[in-house]
């Protein structure tokens, strides 16, 4: 099993700027890469949260290593404001699936190795097999279009329904590949990539989790607390971009003779909640891409929590 390499690690640490005595939340603990880097950068504390019980179990050695500075809790990052007992100085979220999950065939996240068609991060609730074998064709097509941006969503959905029941990842990948035909084989990505992404997002309610998680992070961050979010596809990145833009001051601060140019958040909500630290998403440099090809689609957006006087 390959180790999980945290993407944009230097950029995330730069955005969070860990300091002694501060308290941070790693809302997607995974392999613990961000938590470890934060704890090594300063004498601070980290609360690590993960839906996956396997991630919490793997992290116990790290808990022991940092002697009381790391606490791990199984849960959703959308619940961080309830899990944390006090305001925090920074939150990091890595919205991708960890390498551990991809590499475990029995978790059913990937078509690279055959396994049960599962895809559940928390191992509870509806699995991918449950969805594809019970949803009607229109519902499956809608999920593939909305969450996978699959242009041939109706054709793929029709093929899935015709092939039911489907219980294995290899079965589903074969059905999707056949439905898309030889032309799809010429592209760099596997023909089933968009379908697997869409089903994973559906099964884990990833976009709903992100929407709630952004609000939870806003609630738990203290004054000048930093938020750093790494996303891996356009649906997530657009959500993060829109959320922060609507709640932030603009980059322009005005001059002594003119008022500041307030952002959309000021106009819509009356009070800006964030100052953007990244006006454009940061991407991996060439050196990181050489070490970790997984970083090729990663984007980092960061902001600082502010409270303007009323």
Can you tell me about this structure?
The chain is an alpha/beta fold and 310 residues long. It has two domains: 9-100 and 206-305, Rossmann fold, CATH 3.40.50; 102-204, DNA polymerase, domain 1 (Orthogonal Bundle), CATH 1.10.150.170. It is built from 15 helices and eight strands. The chain has an eight-stranded mixed sheet, sandwiched between helices. α2 links the parallel β1 and β2. α8 crosses α9 (153-163), α9 (153-163) crosses α10 (169-180) and α12 (206-220) runs parallel beside α13 (234-246). The longest helix is centred in the last third of the chain and has 15 residues, at 206-220. It is globular, with a radius of gyration of 21 Å. Residues 251-269 have low confidence and may be disordered.
Q: What coarse outline follows from CA principal-axis ratios?
A: globular
Low-confidence stretches: 251-269
* Structural class assignment: alpha/beta
Number of helices: 15
- How far apart, in Å, are the first and last alpha carbons? 53 Å
Proportion in β-strands = 5-15%
In sequence order, what are the helices and strands, one letter per element? HEHEHHEHEHHHHHHHEHEHEHE
